[in-house]
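Q: I'm writing up a methods section and want to include an example of the input and output format. Could you take the sequence below and give the corresponding predicted structure tokens, formatted cleanly so I can copy it straight into the document?
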Amino acid sequence: MALSKGQLKSRIVSEMQSQGATATGEHSWVNRMAEAIANAVVDEIQSNAEVPVSGGSSAGTYGVE
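A: Here is the clean output for your methods example:
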């Protein structure tokens, strides 16, 4: 499964709205905050996560993209 900044942002916005936040209006920060959080989470996972493969011809440790 690929990581998607856009899908994660949508999920964050949805969760924030379910908690009572308003994503529309001139002063709403919900979309900008959700985008910043999604970008940071995906970037952090992609730059630091490793997947170990213990056997076979593909044995080794690989990064997550």
